[in-house]
Amino acid sequence: MPRIIATLLTVVSLASWCPAEEAKVPLKTEMPEEVLAGTPPDVLALLYPGLEPLPEGEQPDFLVPEGTVNLALNKKVTSSDANPVLGELKYVTDGDKEGSESSFVELGPMKQWVQIDLEKPSRLYAVYVWHFFREARSYHDVVVQVADDAEFTENVRTIYSNDQDNSLGLGIGKARPYIETHRGRLIDAKGVTARYVRLYSNGNTANDLNHYVEVEVFGKPAG
I want to staple 125 with a disulfide (CB 3.0 to 4.6 A). Which of 18, 64, 84, 111 is the partner? Predict the structure, then answer.
């Protein structure tokens, strides 16, 4: 009997220590207007049969803990291209998703990245990225990583990659390349804790340049 009582006390103690499951709510973000010119998405899909099929219907709800916010809004952005061809790096987190010339940054050719400093370690649940979407195109070797330090040497983790042949030297990705749309790309960050977020690309199907309209990082400060 004493052993049973001790076991019950242990279970009660553990139950009181373990945090309760956080309430989940659908992730909400504003979608820009769909404006397309040039090659239609369905034609691009025929030209590049390896692309992920275009989404159909309403985007399903993505649940995140209550109190999750866009931690990236107006945060500092750095890049492998310190002198963009067009636009400014601050456009990446300024909240403007319309994709006009005053709302996207154009980086140089081939492998480039943008990096967001969230200012403190945070628990991340989702990353939303909009590359240029006003004409149908697909960006090559899209990779999203997080880390604890700005140099990306400490606790580096890849949360998304469609680099299927390791062109960037960061490992082979499992995701398929996709066609840019006004919906952007929602990436599940799975609650990883990090301060810095870095997004790579390697040109696109229209040219060898790299473009970012907006990046949102949804989460909550850790601790």
Answer: 64
